[in-house]
């Protein structure tokens, strides 16, 4: 195998090879994903929802992100690991942002960080990049700002917001970010952004005109069956499969069928 690096991702875009990315928060899942050949694993702050059951991504802490990220890093051999800077760990000032990014790199062994926003976090991004830490941007629907937006609906449908998004993407490229996530924006705008910049644009709910795709692993496995936005393709119905397995086990325990003669010492 050949290790995926921030440079190989940019080369993939140049060569027209699409980039595959999914989330991971723990060792066991990360090991399966890496073995399957995923290019990028995102230790997303969606762990706040998926792992901890919070309604938003805001409550997860830097320490908790480092715990998830270090578990993922121990499992992988090939893919690139990107770790989200959680809400509250970078918005105060650029020095705090750099300190948080350094903690992630030192304490988890992750390869890069991602943070949400454009021009408002420009100085923080510069500082982190200056320290030699690769940065992935995140524009469009930025869940850490949910209380500003009020809803999780499609972003940048209006001219003004679309223009700002394009400007922010150009700025992220200029600063030296290695890639940008575009979340829940019109496919046409996402394609225009992907054509305007030379670093990869990874979409989620951003159509097929971008350079790669990311989904939350638990969503694409069908484990979170209450959640079905249009952009989500389900590759398994794990909720049904797992419920069946759990019910079989419960039944076998109750009936005394498990363990059998062969399943004991
Ligand atoms: O935290 C996350 O899972 C993300 C992706 C949806 C891009 O940021
Ligand atoms: Na995130």
From TrEMBL:
InterPro entries: Pantoate_hydroxy_MeTrfase, Pyrv/PenolPyrv_kinase-like_dom, Pyrv_kinase-like_dom_sf. It is an enzyme of class 2 (transferase). It catalyses: (6R)-5,10-methylene-5,6,7,8-tetrahydrofolate + 3-methyl-2-oxobutanoate + H2O = 2-dehydropantoate + (6S)-5,6,7,8-tetrahydrofolate. One of its GO terms (biological process) is pantothenate biosynthetic process. Coiled coil: none annotated. Its EC number is 2.1.2.11. One of its GO terms (molecular function) is methyltransferase activity. Its cofactor is Mg(2+). One of its GO terms (cellular component) is cytoplasm. Binds 1 Mg(2+) ion per subunit. Mg(2+) binds at residues 45, 84, 116. Pfam families: Pantoate_transf (PF02548). Keywords: Cytoplasm, Magnesium, Metal-binding, Methyltransferase, Pantothenate biosynthesis, Transferase. It is found in: Cytoplasm. 3-methyl-2-oxobutanoate binds at residues 45-46, 84, 114. Pathway: Cofactor biosynthesis; (R)-pantothenate biosynthesis; (R)-pantoate from 3-methyl-2-oxobutanoate: step 1/2. It comes from the Bacteria. Belongs to the PanB family. This is 3-methyl-2-oxobutanoate hydroxymethyltransferase.
